[in-house]
Structure formats: C-alpha cells, structure tokens
UniProtKB/TrEMBL annotation:
Name under which the protein is recorded: DUF8056 domain-containing protein
Transport as UniProt keyword: no
TM annotation in the entry: 27-55, 67-87, 99-122, 156-176
Organism expressing this protein natively: Haloferax namakaokahaiae
Ranges for domain DUF8056: 1-177
Source domain of life: Archaea
Pfam families: DUF8056
Length: 177
C-alpha cells in the first residue's frame, strides 16, 4: 500500500486518496495549486532579475538571486508541509480525521497569512484607499478598518503573520502526532 507513495510529488495524490476528510482533500488541491503558482512567480521573477542584472559582475547580485529562491522556499515549504505531514502519517500509522482537518485548516490559515503579510508590506505610494466592497446589492464595509489597520503597520511586520502560521503548522503536527 505504501509503494504507491512515490516521493514528494507522489505524496499529493497519495494524501488525497488516503484521507477521509473533505477539508483536507480541498487543501491538497488548493495547496498544490498555490504552491505551483508561487513557484512559477519565483522562477519568472528570478529569470527577470538575472536578465536585468546579467551585465553586472557577481558579488551582491548573487546574494539577491539566492534571496529570491530562499523567499520562495519559505512560502512553498509551509504550503506543502501539511500535505507531506499527512501523507507520511497515513503511510506510518493510518488515518486520523482530526489530524487531517487540523493540518488542512492551518494550511488555509497560512495561505491567508501570506495575503495579509503582502497587504501589510505594500509600499505607501502603491496603497489604494480602502473602500467598501460591493457585490450586487450588498455592500460590505467591515473590512475597511481592517485594511487601514494593516496599511498603518510597518512593512517589516508583514513577516509576522506567515511566520506565526508556519510555526502553527509545525506545532499542530507535533501536538497531534
């Protein structure tokens, strides 16, 4: 049964097939999609950076190219960690619905935290004034003060939500194993 696992890429279909939780199955699909999109952004960003700085000799530019890859790993790693943790658990000890759901929810929280971190780190000159969201006849204005609060935070604070949620993924894994 464990022979259909097939390593990191095989963990995705393996975890999807062996989990009893629909929440986790949804996370496998959305987490894999998000990890793929982030990976493409990092690769394309790295290509653009290398093309823009190709004529300049090494040194600090080599460090900035490596930094792109490091940031990409810090985002993709926690996106795929719940899937890899659940696949490993199913291979070793079997199914536990509570474990699967908890890791899926922490994975979704990480996705949201990356978005919140990006909103916090938007430069002041690129920020648009928050306005109520209108969806047909419904107007939602509850998020306006939240967005304004996030804009008012220092840009470096944008690292805190993803870091806390990444630690929560690892903490949930350790607590429930």
């Amino acid at each position: 049964m464990a022979d259909d696992y097939g390593g990191v890429f095989g963990a995705f279909p393996y975890a999807f097939r062996h989990s009893d939780s629909w929440v986790f199955k949804a996370y496998v699909v959305l987490g894999a999609l998000a990890a793929g999109i982030v990976s493409l952004f990092v690769v394309f960003g790295l290509i653009v950076l290398i093309a823009a700085t190709a004529a300049i000799p090494g040194g600090a530019l080599t460090l900035s190219r490596s930094f792109y890859i490091l940031v990409g790993l810090f985002i993709v790693g926690p996106l795929v960690a719940p899937i890899l943790f659940v696949a490993r658990r199913h291979r070793r000890t079997g199914s536990d619905r509570r474990y699967d759901v908890t890791l899926a929810l922490t994975g979704f929280a990480f996705m949201l935290s990356v978005y919140v971190g990006l909103v916090i780190s938007i430069p002041v000159d690129l920020q648009t004034p928050p306005a109520p969201f209108t969806l047909g006849p419904i107007t939602i204005s509850a998020l306006v003060p939240v967005v304004q609060f996030l804009y008012d935070l220092p840009p470096l604070a944008g690292l805190i939500p993803p870091l806390v949620c990444a630690l929560a993924i690892f903490g949930a894994h350790r607590l429930l194993r």
